[in-house]
Amino acid sequence: MKSKFLIINKIVLSFAVLALVGCTNLDEKVIDEVLGSETGDPEGALAAAYSQLGEGTFVDHGSVFALQEYSTDEAILPTRGSDWGDGGKWRAMHEFTWDSNSDVVKTTWNQLNFGITRSLNAIASIEKSNINNKALFLAEAKGLLAYYTYTTIDLFGQAPYRDPSNINAPIQIRKAETTIDDLIKEVEGLIPNLADIKTQNTHAGRFTKQAAYAFLADMYLNRAVLKNKTASDFNFLEQAVNGGGTDMDKVIEYSNLLINNPNFNLESNYFHNFDINNDTSKEMIFTIVQKKIASSDKGSDNDLAYMSMERIQKPSPDNRGTNANCVTPEFYYSWNGNHDDPRFQRTYQYEDGTWFRNDGTDVSVPSTSKVEGTGKPWFHFNRGLQVGQQYGPKILANGNFDMTADGRIKVYKLFTEKNTTLAADFTPELNFDNPSEAVFTQAQINRGVRNFKFEFDPGYGNNGTSGMDVPLYRLGTIYMMRAEAYFRSGNVSAALTDVNKLRTSRTNDALKGNAPGVALASLDANALFRESGFELYWEMYRRKAMIRFKKFDLPGTAKPASQPYRRIFPIPQATLDASKDFSQNPGY
Predict the structure, then answer these.
(1) Model pTM score
(2) How far is 357 from 351, CA to CA, in rounded Å?
(3) Residue 259 in contact with residue 482, Cβ under 8 Å?
(4) In sequence order, what are the beta bridge partners of 348?
(5) 454 alpha carbon, distance to own chain's centre
(6) Could you give the CA distance from residue 125 to residue 149 in angstroms, rounded to a whole number?
(7) What does the alpha-carbon distance between residue 305 and residue 271 come to, in Å, rounded to a whole number?
(8) In this prediction, what percent of the chain has a pLDDT beyond 70?
(9) What is the rounded distance in angstroms from the CA atom of residue 556 to the CA atom of residue 126?
(10) All domains of the chain, ordered by start, with CATH?
(11) What is the pLDDT of residues 99-114, one digit of tens each?
(12) Which of 25, 103, 140, 199 is the most buried (most CB within 10 A)?
């Protein structure tokens, strides 16, 4: 019989499991009253630790994604007319006006702390048990603790910890500059007890040896930054923690273990990595499994697709987007000369051969594609960066798509839902009336190129749950990290080879003759930075890359030049008020 944990995790943590560890509001409870609370069910406790990767933390646009992407040149969520004002909390992330009372900062801190708490609970519960696979489950729990801690020290410079074996142990504050080395040692020490992916009933949603290799490559790539994030320069060639070569040598070493593993291969269709059925992608190393068992499962989220889509863009009669975030002009124009790159856009083709070109030539598309659970017609929008006038279906008064006499979905020129005379024409330029404030009038709400990289799941409401697994590490990430490690080690030719492997392994849709991407002839630091954006945009990678490449402090759209202290977010004031263990980060 399979372990209860294996069953729970495979179907993504049923909502019954989520009750095993109660959500505690860190604004009301002192942190050290939360850390150390236990659950008597070790497998349920581990399932709850995995669950917190979802539950908004890494899947909702307003948590880790907001801090890692809205603070960069890739993504922005402006105020659009009467929508998305919310006290300015979203645009503050791009205007660099956040402070210790910022709701987005506080939410992210709390959710990551829940992850740390649940991981500590799992460790304590497993250590006291005699369950089967005890060593494996304990290693996974410790791996999750390290991942939550790493993300927390990356964003906030410090993270809480308590000895899980002693409920009365004092709280400890782990600082980034010292903790990064400890985390590397801890994760390296877990490897013997972790399973290889696809053995012992594991998959990409579990913390396997391969997840550990990817995580270690990430930590080594960013180790120099974590040791002194506000420095004017970083020593990427420092001796590695174990003394075996440099940090970049270790990035290459751990990347090799994944790139040379036959379980992983680059997908020729780049966007398959972000499809609803991306669990079949051969790139997935460590993911947040979002496959649903019930529409009320709160562990998954459709935000990565829902947030960019205009309200008038309807994948089914029951769904719409929300007309919120977009890419910045800086990021869009970085693709100049690369619009034929297969990662830029992909056109959808229906089973009967009909293409949705989204250029005004479409009259109708088949209605044979149906939404699971409702049987209603599913209109498939194109993927990637969407610019210009948009087209799609129209909803009739009866709540259904307007159809042709022979049962096809009619395609119309679209106008914004809240200003029905304003064409849904997405422009690269944002052109705020006040350049320092990301605020649009109602007449300007359609501005900004939208990102349809992630497939919209129409089966469970608008911004509800999604069946798409959110990749934390995939093979494309690893190639990009190894390319940067080669480059920083002075091996530019090897870096160029890796970049070109990513470019040429991806192919366009059949409308473009399935043409592969074009190789680069040379590579410098700016080109490498652009390539990291092409491969990893909106995957919660950009902020770290911008800091490493010395781009984060530069001015941009609605963003002034900023001071180095902004590379770290403040500890929420509510936490400082509740606990004397933390001290505020410099500058705040």
Answers:
(1) 0.93
(2) 15
(3) yes
(4) 356
(5) 10
(6) 19
(7) 13
(8) 91
(9) 48
(10) 41-193+563-587 (1.25.40.390), 223-301+469-535 (1.25.40.10), 303-333+354-466 (no CATH)
(11) 999 999 999 999 999 9
(12) 140
